[in-house]
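Note to self: keep these together.
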Amino acid sequence: MTGRPAALDRALGGATSAPTEPPPAPPPGWRASERTLRYGTVGAVALAAALVTGHAWLLAAAAAPLALLALALPTGRRPQRLTAAVDVEPRRCFEGEQITATLTLAHDGAAGRLDPGLTLGPGMRLDDLSVTEARVRLTFTAQRWGRWTVGTVDLDVYDTGGAARRTLRVDLGEVAVFPVPTATGLTPIPVRLPQRLGEHTSAQRGEGVEVTGIHPYVRGDRQRRIHWPATTRRGELQLHQFAAERASDTVVLLDVLADVRDPATGTSSLDETFRAAAGLVRAYLRTHDRIGVVSVGGTTRWLQPGSGQSYFYRIVESVLDVRKDLGHRSSSLHRLPPPALPQSALVYVFTPLIDQRILEVLDQVRSRANPLVVVEIPTGDPEVEPGDRTAELALRLWRADRDAMRFALTERGIALIAHRPGETLDLALAPLLRTRIHGGRP
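Structure:
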């Protein structure tokens, strides 16, 4: 980070990236400050030189720093009890939003200036730092979605003269950073819809608003729906026939088996997967459908389909810990729990098509006859040095392997679409609106 203020550079210790672990715990109690160590070193060296060489004028060189040390002695009692109250707002935010942490120091004696040292958590960037008499205010920007540790503050408290300091370590806790959903408005639906009122037009007759035809009057029908032109032409009562309106059950399945970075753009497949899935979840919730989520890779996490705008945050919270699962690898995947995939629920699988174990998951979904759509998150080709024949052959094999996975999906009747990062997901979903989505062939 270039051109940052000196206060930020001092708090971060000159580091340009956040370390993974905070430094060792500071020693307890009071200890000499940097000023005391400098003056003491100069005075001690001058005294030693005077004794060794026998030059008395060197004692004058030792007198100045020793006099400054004497003037720096505290005038009041040093604090013995130090506590800090931490206030971090907000604890939940979206990518790119700012987080403010305020540390308020309480002590029992006379204290001097405060000097904070900061160890940033992953996914955080320090933007501003202000220090007053007993308060430190820090402003961060959440750069990536996930459940992150904000950071650790080592608060150096000096006595009134600045001769000694005591360090208080303060943990700022965790924040939940939600992904910015991809812009999405389309909500494709499967062939069969559950018998539940909603906003999707179904193939069955019902009490909707879309006219699908006419039919003869049957005792009990509403006469205000009479179709007068057909009634006059046929000589008997004919009524409008309407399509029933139903809600759909949808499940978003996230492939978190691997996190791959595009060599050209530097984008993360896991980031783009979650952003696209969040946009789709929000679109279906707007149409009052029920939607759930399953994440496979490491620990299998799932949440049963539900509805309501507040359910969006429950879904996101349920998968925020997938980054922590990336260090866990298993040779096989667990069976998907039956409640996670309701009967006839439309399943969207967001995957970079990197790990072939995702095919095991797709086989489980197809075995339950769920309508299935695979959304591929492109990752870009690996970089190859010009003239490196071995790398070029490996790249061809890598491309052929991915083409084989795509071919296997389409041969089984599974809808396969590609979502380009930075584009609206509607561009990928638009072809699905031409027809109802069927389940894949076994």
